[in-house]
């Protein structure tokens, strides 16, 4: 294990603050990353949207402007309000300028931004940068990611995502996301089904509603509405008829909800880069019925507590959920143990520090 304590700048995405309740899996992953690195003795500075936790130790240049929608009904996870990027990009540039000016005291940049500027400037900062690819190949990121200075310093959250980027000439090692066992605890199970995550069309919660109605079980939904029109048209009409919407929940309440459920439904209608909710549910002992798309199968592995069905098939999802929900509750402890053996944050921390060692020494090729 690496014993060297570093000063690390973690660059978060431009859209949402890094705080609870988490806006999505990416924000949850960055939040855990900062906590984990600090707990292991590293000095971590966070470049993130105003309102994030952990900003108290960051220079003013590391604060990015909050996203403010003139009309919240127009808010989406795929666009920005008018004029926002004109404020956000200079703030990001100022943070990168600060890193370059203080390259003598900053050891490494841990980049999770979905904007190309950190990648484009990596070779000129004088500080090694490790970038995690959390999404399918975004056109704006492909060209800067191909640059030679990133050799050995790109990570993908799944083999599926790495293969997608490879088709565009970008090589990345695979480092799956991780979960904190202390925050995702074993739950007792229950009768209800649960769906949790960002409420946007590509996450397919409307198919989970269809499947739940086929089982006759109540579906409890938790998450932030990322597309208001989608929610109003496809989810709201079913509320109160065996479907409960609980809103965005803080992590302790969310883990409790998932742990008191009979089965979690995971319904991406796109090639999901990873599928953190699968690992989180399994860590509470709750089995998962999921669409087999993107990196979901990798997260599922050979776990008997996961059943994969064709993407978009509500009937197959309902059947899988019902079979899992009728399983033996005493299996929940083994389900959790299997998940933690693969996705424990502590295990991932050791791998990450080794990657940082090699990146800093230009030894990882």
TrEMBL record:
Domain of life assignment: Bacteria
Positions of the Glycosyltransferase subfamily 4-like N-terminal domain: 24-182
One of its Pfam families is Glyco_transf_4
**Record's SUPFAM superfamilies?**
UDP-Glycosyltransferase/glycogen phosphorylase
The record's keywords, sorted A to Z, are: Glycosyltransferase, Transferase
Residues of the Glycosyl transferase family domain: 192-333
Question: By its UniProt entry, which InterPro entries does this protein fall under?
Answer: Glyco_trans_1 (IPR001296), Glyco_trans_4-like_N (IPR028098), Glycosyltransferase_grp1 (IPR050194)
Q: Which PANTHER family match?
A: SULFOQUINOVOSYL TRANSFERASE SQD2 (PTHR45947:SF3)
UniProt protein name = Glycosyltransferase
Q: Which organism is it from?
A: Paractinoplanes ovalisporus
